[in-house]
Specification:
The structure holds 2 protein chains of 2 kinds.
Chain A (H helix, E strand, L loop, with lengths): L1 H16 L1 E5 L10 H14 L1 E5 L16 H18 L3 E3 L2 H16 L1 H11 L12 E3 H9 L1 H7 L8 E5 L19 H8 L3 E2 L13 H4 L1 H17 L4 E4 L2 H9 L1 H7 L8 E3 H8 L17 H4 L4
Parallel strand pairs in A: 1-2, 1-3, 3-4, 5-6, 5-7, 7-8
Helix pairs in contact in A: 2-13, 3-4, 3-5, 4-5, 6-7, 10-12
Chain B lengths: L6 H6 L15 H5 L10 H9 L3 H5 L12 H5 L6 H14 L9 H15 L4 H19 L1 H5 L8 H8 L14 H14 L3
Chain lengths: 306, 196
């Protein structure tokens, strides 16, 4: 009886402990990186993270927007900062390109009052204003810092013993240094994987570029960079690669067969979002984590853990 | 002595290009760049050419269009020059001065991407690719019609597109934000304020 009476209290305590963030999905969340969004929402509850989608967010503009005047690019990204500031919560995104674009814009607007005044003149046309000083954070950083490895390890219900994982950070997660992890040899995802009971493999290419959106216009160049990363994972006997970026996942997964063919290599490495692997260790079902969205099949690698 | 009116000052005044005068030509950027071998002039050389006032050569070269913004040069630069920011500034300036490199397709893709965002507030891969290929087609049709019809080989891309389509990773319908009027007003104002 006593237990039953204290249960609602426990639940209320849990809700209090839920940390709330302004979640910025980024455009790939509804497209190429759909599995990231799905798995992210699935682990949110289990980890006590409340991801409130930023109301009426727009595309951050990312690298291609540099063909416009820089002030326009800054205002496009800055509109999201202004929207998040109204809510007063840290802005969290899972996409490396959104993270770097919003983060860089935030730095510029917060540190340069002249630029901020100009941007605000434009933002006023949409009844918005940005005062500066908001925090732009990456989902991986939030998970390892606000929740922490020990807390995660304590919630693991299915240890991923024996799974050999290559942690691919991509480039824009740690560069330019927006204050998270080492710029060339990051460790946070590796530590997370170890907390899940899996093994990490050495991975020299872990923070090198996958060519991002250049894959559309310069496929040969892109397939060369993609091949180097996949080959490196294969040479180190990885069963799978995990990433924290929808662009990286798209390039390594959807372009894998092209890269293999062009470079006359032979590999078959499923590429997951770190949220999918994390969810699996937390006991969330395979379906809720959208593993079937991957182009390279995950069946063989995941079979022992299902 | 003031450097007003020089090319290096123009680059310096674009957000991202501020630290160009700190460069000591050590070449760490070029050594770090994964795509330097594809560039007309590698990053260190481009910075030198900017300082030498070679405006047309720089703004019409392909270098900035091969920058994938991976920031390895920026992370390693001992003088905090931020070469990635300089590449971004050059992309912007080359469009401003209508000197964009003709041999690479990247500017066409980037412009199509930006047009979709300006209209919808959101990116849409499918719509952007269609727009870009239509532009490439028209360009080729005007210069060399035979080449334009060679674009039929693009059907080779269909299996790839289908592999994403059937997994729900390539929505056909473009998403749009709600406050498009406000968004467009912000952009119009920024365009009237920004740039020289």
């Amino acid at each position: 009886m006593a237990l039953r009476r204290s249960l609602p209290k426990l639940k209320a305590w849990g809700a209090l402990k839920m940390k709330a963030y302004s979640y910025y999905p980024g455009c790939s969340d509804e497209a190429t990186g759909i599995a990231y969004g799905i798995s992210m929402r699935a682990i949110g509850d289990a980890l006590g993270m409340q991801l409130d989608e930023l109301e009426d967010w727009n595309c951050c503009g990312t690298t291609p927007y540099h063909v416009a005047e820089e002030l326009e690019a800054i205002c496009v990204a800055g509109r999201n900062l202004a929207l998040a500031e109204e809510k007063g919560q840290d802005i969290v995104t899972g996409c490396n390109a959104c993270f770097v674009t919003l983060g860089k814009t935030n730095q510029r607007l917060s540190n340069n009052p002249e630029l901020r005044a100009m941007a605000n003149e434009a933002l006023a046309e949409g009844n918005l204003k940005y005062n500066g000083g908001l925090k732009v954070r990456h989902l991986l950083e939030v998970i390892v810092n606000d929740i922490g490895y020990d807390q995660i390890a304590s919630k693991v219900t299915k240890k991923l013993e024996g799974l050999k994982v290559a942690c691919y950070y991509g480039c824009q997660l740690t560069r330019p240094n927006l204050g998270f992890d080492d710029t060339e040899n990051p460790q946070s995802m590796d530590k997370l994987v170890e907390a899940l009971g899996a093994e990490t493999v050495p991975f020299e290419m872990k923070a090198r570029c996958c060519s991002a959106s250049l894959v559309m216009s310069e496929e040969d160049l892109a397939l060369g960079l993609i091949n180097k990363i996949l080959k490196n994972a294969q040479d180190n006997n990885a069963d799978c690669i995990i990433t924290a970026c929808p662009l990286c996942q798209l390039n390594l997964d959807a372009y894998q067969s092209k890269a293999k063919k062009k470079n006359e290599e032979d590999y078959e490495i499923p590429v997951f979002f770190f949220t999918q692997l994390l969810g699996m260790a937390l006991g969330i079902s395979e379906k809720e984590l959208a593993f079937k969205k991957g182009v390279v099949s995950s069946k063989k690698v995941l079979a022992p853990y299902l | 002595m003031s450097d007003n009116g020089t090319f290096v000052a123009e680059v310096r005044d674009v957000p991202g290009g501020e630290a160009i005068n700190e460069c000591i030509q050590c070449g760490t950027c070029t050594g770090s760049c994964p795509n330097a071998k594809y560039m007309d002039y590698a990053p260190r050389k481009v910075i030198y050419m900017i300082k030498a006032g070679m405006k047309e050569e720089v703004l019409s070269c392909n270098t900035m269009w091969y920058c994938a913004t991976c920031y390895l040069c920026t992370a390693r630069c001992p003088r905090d020059v931020k070469p990635t920011g300089i590449m971004n500034a050059l992309a912007s300036l080359s469009v401003r001065h209508k000197l964009t490199n003709k041999k690479t397709l990247t500017p066409i893709f980037y412009k199509a991407f930006v047009d979709v965002i300006r209209n919808n507030g959101r990116a849409h891969e499918g719509g952007m690719m269609m727009k870009a290929y239509m532009r490439i087609f028209w360009k080729k049709l005007k210069s060399n019609p035979i080449k334009a019809f060679g674009m039929i080989s693009l059907v080779k891309m269909l299996p790839f597109a289908f592999s994403l389509l059937k997994r729900g990773r390539m929505p056909l319908k473009a998403k749009k934000i709600k406050d498009r009027d406000g968004f467009k007003a912000i952009i119009a104002k920024a365009q009237s304020l920004g740039g020289a």
